[in-house]
Amino acid sequence: MKIKNAIFLDRDGTLNEGIIKENVDNFKLRPPHNNKELHIYKDIAILNSFTDNFCLFIITNQPDIKKGFQTEEFNNYINLSISNIIPITKIYTCFCLETDPGCNCYKPSPGMILNATKEFNINIKNSFCTVFLNNFLVSG
């Protein structure tokens, strides 16, 4: 099996506009809950220029589904809308709450990246990860 390189992309706040959570002491984003809130960043199309050398993966925490604030159907609609702009190899979603015991997929835990690495034979040393954490876009 051919070894591949990857770009791991956070979703909310990186590929689409994240909504600032209200009543939270520190800055936190949530996913859009409806069409009115959904705004996909048009400039993500630049990622198409990397697809000859990199697989594109979305790695996303989506606890709002478990909490009942968003439906799985609308979550899938967001993913499809992004996939219509850039070719996503696979989307890895953690539906856990940050406090769920035994969860190794809720970012910043590496579970989703490790799963993709195994499933798609990814060379992690030649790959990149971009996530939106606490008001900072981080790449590495």
Q: Give me the CATH architecture, please.
A: 3-Layer(aba) Sandwich
The biggest sheet, with number of strands, parallel, antiparallel or mixed sense and barrel status, is: 5 strands, mixed
Poorly predicted tracts of residues: 133-138
Shape descriptor reads globular
- Count of the separate structural domains: 1
**What gyration radius follows from the Cα positions, in whole Å?**
15 Å
Give the count of helical stretches. 3
CATH homology superfamily name: HAD superfamily/HAD-like
CATH topology call: Rossmann fold
How is the largest sheet built, in terms of strand order?
Answer: 5-4-1-6-7
- The counted number of beta strands is 7
Q: What fraction of residues sit in β-strands?
A: 15-25%
Quick check: average pLDDT?
Answer: 89
How much helix is in the residues? 10-25%
Please identify the structural class as seen in this structure.
Answer: alpha/beta
